[in-house]
Amino acid sequence: MSSDYNNPAFxxxxxxxxxxxxxxxxxxxGFAIFGLITAIGPISEAANIAQSxxxxxxxxxxxxxxxxxxxxxxxxxxxxxxxGLWIGTLGLRYVSGDIDYDSLNYSEKFTKYLKKKVGxxxxxxxxxxxxxxxIFAVSFLLIFYVLALTFTILSIVLVATQxxxxxxxxxxxxxxxxxxxxxxxxxxxxxxxxxFITQGWLKKKKWISKFYFPVYWVFSFITLSFLYRxxxxxxxxxxxxxxxxxxxxxxxxAILVLSSFHYRSSNYFDNVDFSSETTARRINYLDVLNENxxxxxxxxxxxxxxxxxxxxxxxxxxxxxxxxxxYNPDLRPENDKRGLRSNMIVTGxxxxxxxxxxxxxxxxxxxQIYKVRIDSTYYDSEFILSEIKQKDIGFETxxxxxxxxxxxxxxxxxxxxxxxxxxVRHSVxxxxxxxxxx
Length: 438
Hints:
Helix content is 57%, strand content 13%. With 438 residues, it is α+β, with helices and mostly antiparallel strands.
């Protein structure tokens, strides 16, 4: 098949498929819109959960998926609307043919104006067809652009984390190499963006193109442009495609700006983003969480407590585990197994006695690091591994509060850490609650 594209029969087949592609476009758009609208909710929820659990890799992957779904839904809905209009114009043309300006019996001035501005009805049908076909193709091209931007930013992050912050490398070497790589990526990203918005201006200038080519070659792998490059250049070599690209970019920017608007009911208060002495965030109270809400780091049983004890839950996140490793370096494994992992990978024999011992050491370290304080008094607490109804895994404890006076109180979780050889304590959680004896 690699040589069949020059065959006249193959070109004839392509032409026939092009003429009938609108049917496939509508079928694909319909199924894709239904699937995307169904999937974007669970994906967004999973992205929020991953963000609350501070799972960086999973947050990025799911974030890309959410953005891609939103782009495809908008473009495919626009495509379906325009295709519907196109089908309507075909039906109208079958009934009444082309526009007969003479039968309208307008004045000569209006007739000339309309013939010039409106023109032939067939031209209108052809224009709609072009818009529909290009928007359908651009819908998937934009996903590659999102991936390109993401991989470019990830390249800079990887240099910062794997080279500049890598203690295994000499400080001078890692600083010099890291800064050089970051400057190259930033400079290359700017040049690539300029070339993108100018539709290849850097490739047209002879002396600039020689300088730009190495950057273009490197970024073709970083942005995966070698996968969709034929689609891009086929899109740009068409005048209609170029004009549409200039129209679509402002439209997307306008949608982005418009979606950022919201009504504010106060000059001082907007959203409750965290709990403190003066604010109470919903997701810090277990009894009011619904099935789609999840704990964000810390939560207590209820905003109003009537029992002689207080239930406190601390979510297991990457930061919590990092705090444990920093406080007790002996628990840090040689091979960190956190992150995306496949269940198909067999790790070999498992020494369960060693694992159980390290789990106990882990919990002991947790209870050394985190202490519970209500108002200004410390309370005895012992965190154990637990799972709550929202499928959040973390550490749970109960503290007796019989001695508390009725009214408003403030729970604080105090974290202990070692900094420059000294033990430092600071509050990592503040949750207000009201206590009334039952």
